[in-house]
């Protein structure tokens, strides 16, 4: 949350130059406050795990949040109990007339397929188009980021020689972006995917800005220049043991996976994983909620249209 100080205080200019959010007394006293409406389209097969991961990331803020869970109607999950889906999830038809301050589109284990081959792709396209008029800011994660970049901006994904799995160093490319407030110059984040996007495709697109990337994992944080769409190609929400569970699952399937890089202590898969990205994850989601949603969303959500 912002520091509320007089605009004429010398510290104000210094803090702003350091990318620290300050608010004048006038703005603070005239703000209207209400709970934020956030929804998540959960495309992950282990939906209960993903719900917990994302909600943990959204919880480190004093902002009140009303949270809706959305599932596709054209693809039924086989890894989540039916009674859980019936009790806690809605479909797009249930919410298409509603408005949200923020919307999250998760990853999905379908990156080897062409987008149009995914059975729920037409439904996802309809939802992504709907977010333009019914959502103030949309956060896309991993495959969701690739799908959003492809649909909205024509950015192609490319198959890697082998699965990218591990925890990688990233560096900031634009230090004064609100989304990166509080970030170190170099920070870590997990990746787990078979495809990538090319940095040059992002850099040369007039409507996109790359905020952070990794020399090993490629583009990481990308935003539309109007701030209404954000794309994160990794999984900062992952738990400490998520990459380990994925690795041993693939071992049992006989896929002969590589050991996740920079993850297990001494790179030994039988040792304890090292949690080195939680602070970055907290900052990423908190900054998104504060600067890209709370500080700029209209008080009356119907004004989005």
TrEMBL record:
GO molecular-function term, one example from the UniProt record: homoserine O-acetyltransferase activity
E.C. code: 2.3.1.31
Pfam families recorded: HTS (PF04204)
Residues annotated for substrate binding in this entry: 163, 192, 249
Catalyzed reaction equations: L-homoserine + acetyl-CoA = O-acetyl-L-homoserine + CoA
Keywords tagged on the record: Acyltransferase, Amino-acid biosynthesis, Cytoplasm, Methionine biosynthesis, Transferase
Cellular component aspect of the GO annotation: cytoplasm
Pathway per the UniProt entry: Amino-acid biosynthesis; L-methionine biosynthesis via de novo pathway; O-acetyl-L-homoserine from L-homoserine: step 1/1
Important for acyl-CoA specificity (site feature) positions: 111
GO biological process: L-methionine biosynthetic process from homoserine via O-succinyl-L-homoserine and cystathionine
KW Acyltransferase (keyword) present: yes
Residues the UniProt record annotates as site (Important for substrate specificity): 192
Catalytic residues (UniProt): 142, 235, 237
Compartments where found: Cytoplasm
NCBIfam families registered for this protein in UniProt: metA (TIGR01001)
Reported function: Transfers an acetyl group from acetyl-CoA to L-homoserine, forming acetyl-L-homoserine.
Entry protein name: Homoserine O-acetyltransferase
Lineage: Bacteria, Bacillati, Bacillota, Clostridia, Eubacteriales
């Amino acid at each position: 949350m912002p520091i509320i100080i007089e605009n004429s205080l010398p510290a104000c200019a210094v803090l702003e130059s350091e990318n620290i959010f300050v608010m004048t007394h006038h703005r603070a006293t005239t703000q209207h406050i209400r709970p934020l409406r956030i929804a998540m389209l959960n495309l992950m097969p282990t939906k209960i795990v993903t719900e917990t991961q994302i909600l943990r990331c959204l919880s480190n803020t004093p902002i009140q949040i009303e949270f809706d869970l959305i599932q596709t109607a054209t693809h039924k999950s086989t890894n989540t109990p039916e009674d859980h889906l019936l009790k806690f999830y809605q479909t797009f038809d249930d919410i298409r007339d509603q408005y949200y301050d923020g919307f999250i589109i998760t990853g999905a284990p379908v990156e080897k397929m062409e987008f149009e081959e995914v059975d729920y792709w037409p439904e996802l396209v309809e939802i992504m188009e709907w977010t333009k008029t019914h959502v103030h800011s949309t956060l896309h994660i991993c495959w969701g980021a690739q799908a959003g970049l492809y649909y909205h901006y024509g950015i192609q994904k490319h198959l890697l020689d082998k699965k990218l799995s591990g925890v990688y160093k990233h560096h900031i490319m634009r230090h004064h972006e609100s989304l990166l407030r509080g970030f170190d110059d170099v920070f870590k984040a997990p990746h787990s995917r078979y495809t990538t996007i090319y940095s040059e495709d992002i850099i040369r697109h007039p409507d996109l800005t790359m905020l952070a990337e990794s020399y090993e994992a490629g583009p990481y944080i990308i935003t539309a220049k109007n701030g209404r769409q954000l794309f994160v190609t990794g999984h900062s929400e992952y738990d400490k043991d998520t990459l380990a569970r994925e690795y041993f699952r693939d071992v049992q399937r006989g896929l002969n996976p590589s050991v996740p890089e920079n993850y297990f202590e001494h790179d030994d898969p039988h040792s304890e994983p090292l949690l080195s990205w939680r602070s970055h994850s907290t900052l990423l989601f908190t900054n998104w909620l504060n600067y890209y949603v709370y500080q700029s969303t209209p008080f009356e959500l119907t004004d989005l249209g």
